[in-house]
Amino acid sequence: MSEVALPVYTKSQLALRNGQDRAEIWIAYRGRIYDVSASRLWKRGMHYEHWAGQDLTHELQDAPHTESVFERFTVVGILG
Fold first, then answer.
1. What is the distance between the alpha carbons of residues 79 and 63, in angstroms, rounded to a whole number?
2. How many CB atoms within 10 Å of residue 61?
3. How confident is the model at residue 15 (pLDDT cuts 50, 70, 90)?
4. Which domains are delineated in the chain?
5. CA dist list (Å): 18 to 4, 10, 27, 54, 80
6. Phi, psi of 70 (to 5 degrees)
7. Which of 38, 23, 24 lies closest to 77, judged by CA?
């Protein structure tokens, strides 16, 4: 799927996909929104001290992994 065809979501719309308000568990990184719902590490919308429904771009520097971890997940939208 081309990024041009992806829907654009606001930060408020992303915040609703936090694993608590809706079944979807989404996070944003570098302007892309990823669906992490299937990951056992994001159950209940939390992964260590990180919460779903947010832009985690600035938090990656504290993570024990690189940005390649996002390749495991489907891009569902663009953060607008």
1. 21
2. 6
3. very high
4. 3-79 (3.10.120.10)
5. 25, 14, 8, 8, 17
6. -70, -15
7. 24
Cα(19)–Cα(2) distance, integer angstroms: 26
Reported pTM: 0.85
Place of tokens 């971890």: 69
Phi-psi category of 35—alpha, beta or left, where left has phi over 0 and alpha has psi -120 to 50? beta
**pLDDT reading at 42 higher than 70:** yes
What is the Cα–Cα distance from 11 to 52, expressed in whole angstroms?
12
Q: Please tell me the distance from the alpha carbon of residue 54 to that of residue 4, in angstroms, as a whole number.
A: 22
Q: Give Cα separations from 60 to 21, 23, 69 (angstroms).
A: 24, 24, 10
